[in-house]
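Q: Hi! First time doing this. I have a protein sequence and I read that you can turn it into a structure. Is that right? Here it is:
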Amino acid sequence: MTWRGWFRLCLALCGVVALGVMTPGHAQERPEADADRQILVMLKMAPPHYRPGAAYGGSYGDGAAMAARRRIAAGIARRNGLTLVDGWPMPLIGVDCYVMRVPDGMAVDAAIAQVSKDSAVSWSQPLQTYQARGSPAGVAPNDPLFRAQPAATAWRLADLHRIATGRNISVAIIDSKIDVAHPDLAGQFIANLDFVDRRTTSGEAHGTGVAGIVGAKAGNGIGIAGIAPDARIMALRACWQTAVGPTLCNSLGLARALQFAIEHNAEVINLSLAGPADPLLARLIALALARNLSVVAPFDPSLPQGGFPASLPGVIAVADESLRSLPARVYIAPGRDVPTTQPGGKWYLVNGSSYAVAHVTGLIALMRQAGGRATRIALDRMAGGAIDACATLVGTSPGCDCSCAIDRRLAGRAR
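A: Yes, that's right. Below is the predicted 3D structure, encoded as structure tokens:
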């Protein structure tokens, strides 16, 4: 039996005492059937110089302006036989986004086509559903689980941290709720916001696991070390953990979180999820990429073109090492039997491309710190598409391995 097998057996036998057995936590109940009857309607937003007075509502963010725009949306809903549910301003792309419910007996596609003809509407689309691409599998520095981390060996993580730790690099994790009070994560966050309409005070498994791989504290004597332990993390909840099923997200929650990340200049955006193509999200991601922000997402071979948003040009697509016959554009990173943080101050082993994405998110934070914020992100590869993290960060050559290359880099700094 391999050391990982023994480790998993140990967790199974004594995890309740030592690390704790992962439980679903406070799962979100959600009327998914009703969500299938909801659509997004983008209300055209007048340019700033056409918003001077009460006719449109004054300045974009004040209460009177918001009320005026909501009245316009309510009128559109009424004229088209729809029910206004919710709304959110998207000034970065020049629209107000409203959720409207299609009544029973009316086809959703027909409702989208009908409301799109309204002169005040920019476009309309389905409220898409997305699914996180990771699942629990069971369960250098002085972090006890460091040696069990695949990146500790495969990526020479302790060596990489001699060059960069992600210091002052902002990373947005758009996911389910992160346990920001976890002892391996507390103090790592510059934002903790909830964009899901059904609130929870409890951390959720998927988001907490992704956050641990990206930015768990290093050298604190507990748990693991994140790939970028000094990164500044934005915990942006746009997904929810279901009672018995997967972690899910929808277009509106993701759009809200993306807009916040872009407005606050998150240099790396982690989207460990996949689903159908979406015009609203595509526009926001294109804006992020145009601003030199890095967006990382999982490649899912079961979805057309690997799923959205990984299929978008410029998005860094990542898969875990269990997947084979991947397109050349897809990077392979650790994603099997990875120890990471879980809600309630626990650690557990996880599997899936979600966690491979988290590794690459952390690596890009290291690259941005080491190379400067304007550095073009380009990940070098080893045979088979696996990432050579050391060559990516510092470069290697025949006769000068990772440690040698890092020693040279540090010597150059000292001069």
